[in-house]
Specification:
By secondary structure, this protein is mostly helical. The chain has one domain: Four Helix Bundle (Hemerythrin (Met), subunit A), CATH 1.20.120. Helix content is about 50%, strand content about 5%. It contains 5 helices and 2 strands. It has a two-stranded antiparallel ribbon with strand order 1-2. α1 packs parallel to α5 and α2 packs parallel to α4. The longest helix has 18 residues.
């Protein structure tokens, strides 16, 4: 099971991230590669409390859906709606300079993975409270999903 708790999986995501460019072509969805970079940054900012994100959780989302999303041996499918605050067509951060936006994402990624114990108990907007293990699995899956979206 891939997770950012594993050094090889962490290095894989960092390597794949470097292959995305402003002109990378999407395989699905409506975001550009640059918007995807901003979306991933917004996600890290939101789950660490530095960007507001509305909650959409309930008992089913905190149990069954959380388990399936994080631990079933399935890839995340295209088209699952995101929270409006990190949706690039609604309230997400607008792209500015690709190099600067990518550098911010890389910084947030390193911060997120440097001290996993700080993640314990943070609230996911759908899955509710999560452990550091849950968060490192989520982060791998979320980044993998969007990197696959752009063929990386």
């Amino acid at each position: 099971m891939k997770t950012l708790a594993n050094e090889s999986d962490l290095a894989e995501i960092q390597r794949r991230l470097k292959t995305v460019g402003p002109d990378s072509t999407r395989r699905w969805g409506r975001m550009t590669a640059h918007q995807m970079i901003c979306h991933l940054s917004d996600s890290f900012l939101a789950v660490t409390g530095r960007k507001h994100m509305s909650m959409a959780t309930g008992p089913l989302q905190r149990t069954v859906i959380k388990w399936v999303a994080l631990y079933a041996p399935l890839r995340w499918p295209p088209g699952y709606p995101t929270r409006p605050e990190i949706d690039q067509a609604i309230g997400g951060t607008r792209p500015s300079d690709f190099v600067d936006d990518l550098a911010l994402l890389e910084t947030l990624f390193v911060e997120f993975t440097t001290d996993p114990t700080a993640l314990n108990g943070l609230q996911h907007p759908v899955f509710g409270p999560m452990t550091s293990s849950d968060w490192l699995r989520w982060a791998y899956l979320h980044m993998d999903h969007h990197l696959r979206q752009f063929g990386s």
